[in-house]
Specification:
The complex is a heterodimer of chains A (765) and B (103). Chain A has helices at residues 21-44, 46-72, 104-127, 134-153, 157-175, 182-214, 265-273, 279-285, 293-308, 317-320, 326-335, 340-347, 349-352, 356-377, 383-404, 407-434, 447-450, 452-466, 472-485, 501-528, 560-575, 583-586, 591-596, 611-636, 643-650, 652-659, 664-735, 743-764; strands at residues 14-15, 81-91, 94-102, 215-219, 225-229, 236-239, 255-258, 287-288, 291-292, 491-492, 496-497. Chain A is mainly alpha-helical and 765 residues long. Among the domains of chain A are: 231-288, no CATH class; 353-543 and 553-659, no CATH class; 664-764. By secondary structure, chain B is mainly α. Chain B has a single domain (7-91), classed as Helix Hairpins. Chain B contains 3 helices and no strands. Chain B has helices at residues 6-26, 30-56, 60-90. In chain B, α2 packs antiparallel against α3. The longest helix of chain B has 31 residues, at 60-90. Chain B is elongated, with a radius of gyration of 17 Å. The chains are: A mainly alpha (765), B mainly alpha (103). The A-B interface holds A 736, 739-744, 747-748, 751 and B 21, 24-26, 33, 95-96, 98-103.
Chain lengths: 765, 103
Amino acid sequence: MEHAAHHLAPLTTQAVSFLWLIPLFPLVGAFINATMGVRLQRKFGKGLVHSISIGAMVLSFVVACIAFFKLLGLDAEHRFLQDTLWNIFTAGKVQVDLGFALDPLSMMMTLIITFIGTLIHVFSTGYMADEPSYWRFFAYLNLFIFSMLLLVMGDNFVLMFFGWEGVGLCSYLLISFWYTDPQKAAAGMKAFVVNRFGDFGFILGLFLLFWALGGAWQKGADGKLTYVEDAPQLSSAHAVAAEHEGEPVAEHAPVDIKVGPTLNFRELRDEIVITSTGMAEKLKGQTLFGIGLLSLVGILFFVGAMGKSAQLPLHVWLPDAMAGPTPVSALIHAATMVTAGVYMVARLSFIFALSPTAMGWVAFIGALTALFAASIGFFQYDIKKVLAYSTVSQLGFMFIGVGVGAYWAGAYHLLTHAFFKATLFLGSGSVILGCHHEQDMRKMGGLGKLMPITKWTYLIACWAIAGFPWASGFYSKDEILWKAFTQDGLAFPLLGMTPHLGQLIYLMGILTATGTSFYMFRSYYMTFTGEYRGGHGHDDGHAAHGHDEHHGHTPHESPLSITFVLATLAVGAVLASVIGIPTAWTGSAPLLEQWLEPALPAVVRFAEYAHSTEFLFQAIGVSAGVVGWFFARALYKDNKSQVPAQLLAKWKGAWTVVYNKYYVDEIYQATVVRGSISLARVLSWFDKNIIDGIVNLAGAITRVVANIDGVIDRYLVDGAVNFVAGSTLSAGRILRRVQTGRIQTYLYGALVGAIALVLFNFLIK
Amino acid sequence: MGHLTLNHFLVVSALLFGFGMLAVVTRRNAVAMLMGIELILNAANLNLVAFGRYVSGGITGQIFGLFVIVLAAAEAAVGLAIILAIYQMGRNIDASQATTLKQ
């Protein structure tokens, strides 16, 4: 559909001065808890610690709401709040300001982060109640929120990257929260290292983009590629009214737009989206080593997203990250950090939209990941692992969305996923808590009667994720799949334009939807129906249990702090559907699409189909969910059926491969990990023997020289001094003999002297 | 025998001086050293008188000689007193034994 012309003008910003408070409160909370948390907890108890933390979150949320209402009050074209604090540094063309910007996209993210973040903080007060390092947990949580807010609110690449790295760090800190268990510590390290791979791609993409904005690589006469900077006349351009159809010319006067290398998102958007600057054409025409530059930039940025958002092949850290406490999994690995990749692609939508190859790549990898992860989720027994693979899979869906050009749909799925996945994770946390830290679903069952609130919220969230109508997952998922199906303009690297890639992705998506429904309901039925199969749950290295009111082994419903949060999130999962009702139903664009439109200026063409076709596809989507649910119910309701065990016995080989996650981790271990360790060993040998050898040699030489110096000093110098003294002594000894004490000797001497004088005198005359 | 000239007196006094120096330097007996010193002094006296007679005239030489005689006497007395003191200390007057100032 045609987008209104307003977003083709440069973005006008509204300056405000309070945006910096939003990330500041969590930072202050983190600082207080980190430095004084131990003492506060000891003196005033855990209540103070979490009050500081939650108070900071609430304040942050309140300020975010104020910003939201301020944004609502502006016209759609002018919805952009900017708060620049100061210039961090300027180096040549690179100018980095500490600036926060809120446009509709980042506003949505900020609200998600602060709202769900606050709820999860409240949840943690119940879940982590026995934890002695309570203060450390809340400090890390606040620090994470700060980093995430920096990521989404930063108005330039550097701040975003700062937040990007910061959430990676906090993810590491939180995953290996119980670091005394080496497995958990290793999981944290794995997450961090894999993330770094992604960050490398991100940085490369950023460098390429920055360079490309300021010049181009050209083949000189000698055949070598050299970088040629742009001629100065490209340094200022005017936006002309010709972009706008049917609007009076006088309304849009020419505006000066900064053209050239920039790190600021708004400036970047302006110079690329407004075609009269010529920058978009220039970028499209550039190639690097024969590959289209924009495709390369898009692919590299997506590598960063792959790492952060756990897409193939860098997905391996997310399931292991379940070693962290459940609130961490809910917050970081469901609602916020992993969505940073999706946010980044949506933020840079105008760049991706210029390159069909990048779009096709993103969408395809997203689809492949979705299918791959869903298949693994079929057979996992650990409830958190099921949810982890589900997250990877749903992230794949989001990338399908932003890959095919349905940016608002990808963002919408981000929002709905945040709600229902958080509900699912926190529900699983409630279940785990109730079963005494038991995570294996084979030892659960029958919890529906014992933990009703958890059951109902979990069920609602399953309904949402499976994509049944009236829960938000349906709207976002179907929008994405529909847009994938109607996108003909995708290309694939090395293959060129592939018109049916969109349809292939749709097919993969539908299969994934079926699988999603299947394994989610499988987890539901295994956990909540039938009879309770659990014995005494096993400790997983956690601190002493504090469930004083617990009698025997029977699980019971969790405290209010937990159930309240579950209920709120489940309600949110349902209510989020209101803002996403498709155009085909109401005739006008969904509320969220309208809201996000100014922030997602890329114009992407989709094929036009009749509304009836769209209804058909929605029906197909729902039926896919129903099919999955049906099989799950048949196989797992009340855990009475023998079919799963029979199927497992029959297809043991295939089951083993899928259960072991297609051995991806093992492959990495054999290649990357062993390779790195061998390299480290070689370098260590080099360092110990050769480099240290050189240093030791220098030391040895110094010692030898020092010895020589010592000898010289002892014999030559001291010898000379001693010789002088000795000769003086000898001279004295000899001359002393003159003093005989005998008067005659003296007289004799005097006489001889006198005669000698006279003779001397006489003779010389 | 010709006339006695100044040179005759000078030679005699030189000889006397030499004998006296010899006595001082070679004798070990302190009193003998004193005798030698007397000889030296007298040789100087003879010199004085000779020069008084042959060169300057008047009585200058003779008066000077009288002074020297008095000095010699005083000095002999003091010398003998020192020798007495040394004898009372060491019980002999061998000059080669008085080496307290030896280094």
